[in-house]
Amino acid sequence: MADVCVVNKIDSAPQEGVDAVLDSIREHNPGARIVLAASPFVVEGDASAIAGKRVLAIEDGPTLTHGEMTYGAAVLAAKANGAAELIDPRSAAVGSIAETFRQYPHVGTLLPAMGYGKQQMDDLRATIEGSGAELVLIGTPIDLRRLIDFQVPALRITYRLQEVGEPTLREVLAEHGLIGDEALV
How many domains, the chain? Predict the structure, then answer.
């Protein structure tokens, strides 16, 4: 029923997965416009600070646990910018964070940010500070530094939408009258 389908992460998803999504759109909604996009990560701050550091990568908890992803923006940024090591936080995990690792052992060496209640935030703070990391990379939808006061230096990692080819999302939105033509300039 959609007029527009955005197929994202075409730069990092396996080509057969991208092809399967495109085939499905064409089969089930042949009239939909398709916008192809990538999601390059952005380091908010000095990316050179990552080089040579023992880094703790914090990623979105539900994406790691229920979504079964094995890495996210923080891990990509650590690897791309020469981190010496990705810290395994499991031995430092306390409370609800330790329980998350027990329930979802596939999470591995990432720190899942699970929930934003007081106890979970306290457990996350204790896990971060006990990890031995020299730098924390925050790859969560919210900047955890706004919620938790921890003593380890941190950088936030985000994604940006980068359209690949044509049509662009702006062009399609303009065709549907959802933005004015001046937005295309």
Answer: 2
Q: pLDDT digit string (tens) for 45-95?
A: 999 999 999 999 999 876 777 666 777 889 999 999 999 999 999 999 999
DSSP one-letter code for 128: H
Residues 99, 60 within the same domain: yes
Residues 52 and 107 in one domain: yes
Residues 110 and 173 in one domain: no
- Closest C-alpha to 56, from 152, 146, 159: 152
- 111, 155: one domain: yes
pLDDT of residue 185 exceeding 80, the answer is no
Q: Over the stretch 87-119, which tens digit does the pLDDT of each residue have? A: 999 999 999 999 999 998 888 889 998 877 899
Indicate whether 170 and 102 sit together in one domain.
no
How far apart are alpha carbons 149 and 172 in whole angstroms? 43
Tell me which DSSP letter residue 42 carries: E
Question: Tokens 């950088």 identify what position?
Answer: 155
**Short-list 10, 26, 27, CA closest to 18:** 10
